[in-house]
């Protein structure tokens, strides 16, 4: 086993060094930030050259380099070899078992005529189910593949995946950055990373769009929230106001009237906390054109997402923003969420780093996550 430390000022460049030196099957054991001259440094500890039966093929650097589970367990004292051997073997056995169970289920229930058991379409069907996609959505997508592909090309995995990717891309509605209003509010349940996402959005509009930003925080409930948003504002060199009631909100909006864009961070509220949701609603702006983005984690279950969509609709959210894409491998909810909410996607938050781990949502990204495309 070869273990090496990589350091640099930019995580993307450090990752490129890891790939270049250790290859695509490198396993990331730890990522952390270190103090350095002129700013913080990113350190990545990577390993390679495990025996073939010690890791699952395909679960390499691209998907798991930011794995919080690996990082937290190592920092808790577990030896790295545990994750390179027993943990991966156990995961591999579970995946194989699930695939076998799906195969038996599909053979029992039957496929449409073009979906021969063991064929390309059946394999893609199983893959989509494992990604957490709803069965009816999977069937609909593959039915369209069958209708669009000539019979002689349906056995080609490359042709089928290409056609399937196009169907997924077509099904993902988007709210582009230039369609988002001047006043942006982020709402959502507790623990979804709204404050970090606010900082990433502020950096995006400030650095990418050259806009003057003002931040407003309504989150005075969570311990340390005020200090956190103030620190982000300091680093980004943008002003911030912390408000506790509607009058203070209106005053802050007046102070930021000359700013190109105002982004409002709110306290997380459980979708079962009716009083808390009502109190938050009373603080937020009225008589203003607001784009509200509903922030939900990519690992949320469909039933929970439905509850969130219903309870937070009082905030008139106009798009979904999925956070924590790095904390799950089941990304079917990205597509399903669009369908359930009948609303577009806006941004994806892909990790804890500010501002790096933020990207505009795209159908291509959703297709890549669902089909394991690189």
Structure explained in plain terms:
Helices cover 45% and strands 18% of the residues. The protein has 374 residues and is α/β, with parallel strands linked by helices. The strands form two sheets. Strands 6-5-7-4-8-9-10-11 form an eight-stranded mixed beta sheet, with helices on both faces. Strands 1-3-2 form a three-stranded antiparallel beta sheet. The chain is globular, with a radius of gyration of 23 Å. It has three domains: 2-88, no CATH class; 110-170; 177-371, P-loop containing nucleotide triphosphate hydrolases (Rossmann fold).
Regions with little confidence, pLDDT below 50 for 5+ residues: 50-85, 107-114
At the first level of CATH, the class of the largest domain is Alpha Beta
The neighbouring-strand order within the major sheet is 6-5-7-4-8-9-10-11
Number of helices: 15
In total, how many beta strands?
11
CATH H-level superfamily of the largest domain: P-loop containing nucleotide triphosphate hydrolases
- End-to-end separation in angstroms reads 26 Å
Strand percentage: 15-25%
CATH architecture descriptor of the largest domain: 3-Layer(aba) Sandwich
Which sheet architecture does the biggest sheet show? 8 strands, mixed
Q: If you consult CATH, what is the topology of the largest domain?
A: Rossmann fold
Please tell me the total number of domains. Answer: 3
